[in-house]
Amino acid sequence: MKIETRHLQGALRLSQEMGWPYRLQDWEFAATVGEGLVIERAGEVIGTAMWWNYGQAYATAGMIIVTASAQGAGYGSQLFNGVLQATVGRNVLLNSTAEGLALYKRRGFTAWSTVLQHQGTLTVAVTLNARDDIRPATISDLMGIQAFDQRATGMSRQSMVAQLADVGNVVVVERAGRIAGYAIARKFGRGYVIGPCAAESAQDARLLILAQLSKLHGQFVRIDVYAEDELSDWLEGLGLKQVSHATAMVKGQRPESDGTARMYALANQSFG
């Protein structure tokens, strides 16, 4: 059945069982911006799966969980079949744990990158020298941020970006009167997550991340980055240790970024 508000407390228990750091508010946000399915047994949520459609061409999938006592009974396949049916006609992206790789490969997903999860309490004093090109975003920047996100991801994520910006703190790179990068920090899990972060170079991505970290001293911070962008060692140097990784996979055609714009840090591993 479709996920509803009444299911979210049960969904939270599932993610806690998995050791995932989601809060009830994180489930509420995910359900607001996406769609999902649940399986109940005796009135208890025993499985979840969610997806987020980005235009007519793409979707991401995630938050696919089956309680330990019900694993091996085909519930995971049932839920994932529902996701694929709901996203039929779209190219589907997801980030897989080691446990999910076999299932996704059987369904035609192929790996294209590795996502590295960095996190920790920010104890390093981070400062960013005043720069004319990096500043807090204003409401009037939203369309420029959305356009840059589409360049960076190759997907139409205007609604998702608007809702992330609404609940988070946004900084932008502005050059020659145009948005050339952005980063959002918002409350998530044990503290804050920085992402999405999209920019035209790794150097700009670092500056945007530093601008966000400069406001988060003493807070627990999470950042998920792509391995090929070589931000991992830099984040380690800031005290944000790599604690896990996921395999970025796609069924169909992977979206292509436009020009130099690219995504450096994810909103989370489900949204992309």
Automatic annotation (TrEMBL):
Pfam family example for this protein? Answer: Acetyltransf_7
Q: Which UniProt keywords apply?
A: Transferase
SUPFAM superfamilies with a match to the protein in the record? Acyl-CoA N-acyltransferases (Nat) (SSF55729)
Gene Ontology MF term list: acyltransferase activity, transferring groups other than amino-acyl groups
Q: Which residues form the signal peptide?
A: none
User: Could you tell me which residue ranges the N-acetyltransferase domain spans?
Assistant: 1-131
> Which InterPro entries does the entry link to?
Acyl/Acetyltrans_Enzymes (IPR052729), Acyl_CoA_acyltransferase (IPR016181), GNAT_dom (IPR000182), YitH/HolE_GNAT (IPR041496)
Name it: GNAT superfamily N-acetyltransferase
Q: Which organism is it from?
A: Rhizobium giardinii
